[in-house]
Amino acid sequence: MRRTLYTKIRRLSLHWHRDLGYFFSGLIIIYCISGIALNHVNDWDPDFILIKKEIILPQTRVAAKLEQAEIEAISRLTGEKSFKLYDFPTPGQVKIYYNNATFHVYLKEKRGFYERISKRPVFYQLNVLHRNSVHVWKWVSDIFAVMLILITITGMVIIKGKYGFSKRGIWLLLAGLIPPLAAVILQAIL
Fold it and tell me: CA–CA separation, 74 vs 88, rounded Å?
């Protein structure tokens, strides 16, 4: 009877493991890609692309005499079609604001610094999900975490014999716990 119950649990685990694995495989891949991107946040910005460039103006201008037509002419040097507004942080400067960009112009030096920020395609959206920045997504993420635990547990009982969990699997599980435990211990020491 014990053998029959184990066989039923094993068979049910096989089906659950397979079906849950298929169902969540897309989300697993998304979380893995986003996780790699977020792990390297000090190497690159996984959410935004920042473009910076210095632009040389063809002539000097006086801040007090700048009018909208001249601001538009200066803006064309950046490739921007229209600006939102502009101001004068100092008497020799004009700062022009665009959608997701700014142009800081030093009038006497005939140069300016243009900066544009844009969302990094795909990564931005994946990272929003990974960080649970969408309010409702928190619950989806919790369900996903529980399902990963269930997928892991069902995977432990699928294989039997010398490659099963009770023989080889338990040792691999214990070996797999060494890196995170070592990291926690090292973090506590340092």
Answer: 14
**Structure-derived torsion over alpha carbons of residues 19, 24, 26, 27, reported in degrees to the nearest 10:** 180
158 has a pLDDT exceeding 60: yes
**What is the side-by-side order of every strand in the sheet holding 85-87?**
48-56, 111-119, 101-106, 93-98, 85-87
Label residues 1-34 b or e (16+ Cβ within 10 Å = b): eeeeeeeeeeeebeebbeebeeebeeeeeebebb
Mean pLDDT, residues 173-184 taken together = 94
Contact 77, 88 (CB under 8 A): no
Q: How many CB atoms lie within 10 A of CB 105?
A: 27
Q: What is the reported pTM?
A: 0.70
Residue 49 has a pLDDT of: 95
